[in-house]
Structures are given as C-alpha cells and as structure tokens.
Predict the 3D structure of the following.
Amino acid sequence: MGLEAKLTSDGFITTTIDAVIAWARKNSVWPMPMGISCCAIEMMAVADPKYDLARFGSEVMRFSPRQSDLMIVAGTVTYKMSKVVRKIYDQMPDPKWVIAMGACTSTGGMYRTYSVVQGIDQFLPVDVYTAGCPPRPENLINALMEIQDIISKTRGRDFQDKPLLEMGFSKQ
Amino acid sequence: MELKEVIIEKLNGTLKGAVLEVTDFRGDLCLTVAADKIIDVCTFLKSDNDLEFNMCEDVTAIDWAKRKMRFTMVYHIYSLKNKFRLRLKVNLEGETAHSVSSVWASANWYERETFDMFGIKFTGHPDLRRVYMPEEFEYHPLRKEFPLLGIPGSIPLPKK
Ligand code: SF4
C-alpha cells in the first residue's frame, strides 16, 4: 500500500525535480493565521476536527512567519494594521502565497470608511480571494485547494534570476 | 427634595451664573455650563459630600457644522453614591476647551479621543496626542466636512 505500491519492481520512478517538489509543497502548506477580526473565528473552525484542514496537509498553523508559506489574512485590515501585516508577510520565506479571506480583506467589505484599507491587494500580492462575511469553512478549504493548484503549477525556474527585493524582501 | 433639585440649587448657590440652562428630558438631567466655569463646576460636583460625582464616563463633542458656535462639548458623569447620571454640555466659542483631566484622570484619554476625532484643543491637558489615527495624520475624521472614505493618500500604505 501507499507509495510503495506505485513503485515498479525495479524500485525507482522517473519524474522531474519540479514535480516532486511541487507535490511535496502543495501537500504540506503551513499557514500563517493572520487572524485580525471575526473571520479568524471561522478560520479556527476550519482547523478543528469537523472541517479538518489536516486532510490537506495544512494542520500546522504556525504563529511564526518564519516557518510558514501561506498567509491567511482573516479580518478587517485597517491602515494602522496594514504595516504590521506587510512586515509579517515580508518575514515569511519564499516561496509564499496569500489568501484574502472574507469580504473585509478582499474589498473592505461593509467597512466602507476612512480607517479600513479597501482591499489588501493594495499592499500585498493576493493569490486567492474568498467571498463571504465570514466565508463558510468549506469556502476557505476551497481557497486552500486553489492554492494547492497554484503551487502544483509552480516551477523552480519561475524563481530563477529574480531579485530578492521583487520576491518580497524589503530593506527595512 | 429630589436629587435633581439639590444639584441645581447647590450649583446656583456656590457658583453663580455657571449653569446657563437646565433640561430634564425623560428623566435625564442635562446642564449647559459656561465655558470658563467648567472646571469649577466639575470640581464642585466631584468634591461635594452629598453629590460625589466621582466617575467620568465619557467626554465627547458634537459638530454642528454650520452653527456659529460650532462645537459642543459633552460630559457624562456618574455618582456611584447616589446612582445618578448627569450630562454636562459646554458650547465652545472656537476650537479650544478647558481640560477636566485634572478633576477626573479618566478624562485624559477621552479628551485625547475628542482631539483626535474633532480637533478640539484642550488647555491644561498633560499629553494631548492622537489615540486612534496615526500621529502624522492631518485631519479630524468626525468633523462634518471630512469625507466618509477619507482623503486619498493621506495615510501611506506599505509598498507592494
Ligand atoms: S468579512 Fe465579515 S466576518 Fe470577516 S472580518 Fe469582515 S466583518 Fe468580520
């Protein structure tokens, strides 16, 4: 059973490094739970046994940006908070991905006001947007599966010759 | 004598001319106080043995936009001893008010909030800085002329 069953009797398979790495990466996404307000409660529900994000290899929510490669921004991002979110994002090692969870994060949501950033894509590169206020747990799981899709299409050469700054390292 | 009458009588006795107007709407007593007497009135209300308004619940302001005296200060104070809530109002000539933080320490942050949101300056305040908005922000969001979505570019975002 398992991987061994897939191996031929010779005991080896041929594939590309890209495929293996992408396969490993997409099944071990470690989220950085950037829970800022009410959406975070729904994000916790996703991690609990009922919805069980562990089925997708994402059970280790890391509260340190240095150990995670997916940032789930869950909540209302104010202008004051935007600097914090960006700083934490900058501390995550490459390659990294971002889910904008919920109406607030994606568009400002019901907070159409001077203090709330009207969509975090104004200062973060977002890969997947999630609709809802808050999104149902299934919706976040769907977003994670979208991220897995994106990851499986990532190739090592996508990162070659890219200056570090462009990949998200800022000087300060 | 009811407590309301006691308050008004005592104030009129000790601080003549300080109370300009008394309204009693649905049991909520509200006194309009002369701008230069507010500290005296507050000190008296707090220290008088029968009244003891020892809790300052809120300090805020009203922006009347087009009225001549544009801003009104509003104080909500409470007497734990009498279980009585009182509202004080002060119509401001300009944008400056006297700070009551020397009477109730809790007024310190409420006045900072009022300064942040309405731009009212408090004389005698120990540390008049913004509370909510970034320190370098130039506007006062709860003023009537401030647009709902803010002024584009007034708060910098991190670079993408
Ligand atoms: S989208 Fe709704 S649930 Fe999510 S943070 Fe905004 S208000 Fe809260």
